[in-house]
Structure formats: C-alpha cells, structure tokens
Amino acid sequence: MVYEGRRRAGRRRGGKVRSSGGFGRVCLWLLIFVVAAWAVFPGTMRKLRDKAALALGIDLDGAVRVFSEERDGGAGLFGAAKSSVMYAFGAGEDSREPASDSGDGEDLPAGATDGVELADLPLPKYVSAETPQLDLALLRPVEGEVTVPFGYRRDGAGTVSFHYGCDVSASPGEAVRAMAAGRVMAVGESTTYGKYVIISHEGGVETIYAHMGQTSAAGGETVEAGREIGFMGDEEGAYLHLELIVDGEYVDPEGYLK
Fold first, then answer.
1. Which domain holds residue 213?
2. Last residue of a domain, one of 35, 59, 87
3. Is residue 4 in a domain?
4. What burial letters (b/e) apply to 122-145, b meaning 16+ CB within 10 Å?
5. In a domain? residue 8
6. Cα(93)–Cα(214) distance, rounded to whole angstroms?
7. Does residue 72 come out as left (phi exceeding 0), alpha (psi in the -120 to 50 range) or beta?
8. What is the three-state SS of 117-167?
9. What distance in Å separates the CA atoms of residue 22 and residue 55, rounded to the nearest whole number?
C-alpha cells in the first residue's frame, strides 16, 4: 500500500484501482466468525485446532507460551513473535530446547526465604497448582519412583529454585515410552536437559522427556502411545526428568503417573 499524505491510495491491477478495504473486512468477519464459533462450540473448535496443529507439525500452545515468556522477559513484541514462530515451526531442530530452559525457575538466594515455608511461596508464571482433567489417558514413561518432585526445592546451600517437572528413577538401558499418541516436535541435546524429546498431543497437552542416554524418535514423526522414544543412561545418572504442560501451563506430572 502506498501512503500519500493523509490519503491512502489503492493498488492498481489491470488499470483499475482496487481498494484494500475489502480484504480488511473479510479478515474482520473471519475473526468474528472464529470467535463466535469458539464461544458456541469450544470443544469442537479445540479438536479442530489440535488436529490442524498436529497435521502441520505446529505446537500452538507451546508457541503462545514462548511468546508470553519472551515478551515478559523484555524481548519486545517483535522478538517474542520471532521466538514464538521459530518454536512453532522448529520441529526436529537440535537448537530448539524446552521452553523452561533449565527445568528450574529463577533462584532465590540463601536467606531470602528464611522462615518461609516453600509451599507458601507464590508460583512462578505459567505454572498451575491444579491437576486438570485431560481428554487423553497418559501412560507411565518408565517404571520407577519419583525421586525429585515438582515444585520449589531448597539445596544444601539454602538456595531455593522451582522444579518444573519431576524426576523418575529408571534403570540404565530402560526404554522411555511416549505417554500418549502425538507428534514429535523436537529431538535434541543441551547442557541442562541432556538428550530430550518433546511431544505435542491433542487437547493442548505437551510432554517433555529429558536426561536420556539415547533418543530413538525423530522430529516431525507421529508416535503412538507407549512407543519407545529413547533409553535411559544419562551421565548424570539413570533418571528421567519429565515435564507436563497443559494449555500453556506447567502442571505436576506425578498426579498422572498411574
């Protein structure tokens, strides 16, 4: 569009002036239709959104979460949007890491929480204390006990940090299995997560499996519930760091390990 002073000029095509107002009205009516359909048929619209996201390999909930985290972190709207798009379309790229970065939130130094019960500390952003009812059943990824729970923890020096998942004990070489059917959004390795796999499921659910010794899934592929996606044997010890995200919020995975 060419801007001339205070008057907008239309685009010329075939010698005729075409106003851009028609396109804007179409977009507006489309937006109104989508909002109205979501209000009247929320369940159907969610299923359509999830199916489209899985078919295209786009992690919509994760992208929204990354956008919010980046914006609140001072990246600005453009930077947040860029990170969000890269996250959504980065299936299978080794550079894409779980959004919680290190599995821990900002550390609270020793002394800052003296006399305060950890259970009384406010939850970080994008964390829910609820155990929402899911539309899909989740399988246990490994046969072990939870050794480090979800939530705040204090180390030997008195520093408090938030653990965004739970650690589950496992035997070296034990297979790690997908908790539900879904699309593998990323397979990678980082200094904090070790070897990890991220899977997006229907219903706004995302699972993250970290600290594996070996991965056997490929980014972009569709897996069934119980499908082998890796093996235990990380150099930090045989345990699986498991994260569960529902509608853009981290929730305690332990409540779903039946």
1. 92-256
2. 87
3. no
4. eeeebbeeeeeebeeebeebbebe
5. no
6. 16
7. alpha
8. CHHHCCCCCCECCCCCCCCCCCCCCCCCCEEECCEEEECCCCCEEEECCEE
9. 31
- Whether the model clears a pTM of 0.90, i.e. scores above it, the answer is no
Is 98 within the bounds of a domain?
yes
Provide the CATH number for the domain around residue 243. Answer: 2.70.70.10
Helix 42-56, helix 21-40: angle, nearest 10: 120
Cβ atoms 127, 245 nearer than 8 A: no
204 plus 127 within the same structural domain = yes
Query: Residue-wise pLDDT tens for the chain (258 aa)?
Result: 333 333 333 333 344 444 445 665 665 666 576 666 656 666 565 556 555 555 555 555 666 666 666 666 666 665 666 666 656 555 434 444 565 544 445 566 555 555 667 777 888 888 999 999 998 999 999 999 999 999 988 877 778 888 999 999 998 899 999 999 999 988 988 888 889 999 999 988 999 999 999 999 998 899 999 999 999 986 666 799 999 999 889 999 999 987
Same domain, 245 and 209: yes
- What is the C-alpha to C-alpha distance for residues 30 and 34, in angstroms, rounded to an integer? 6
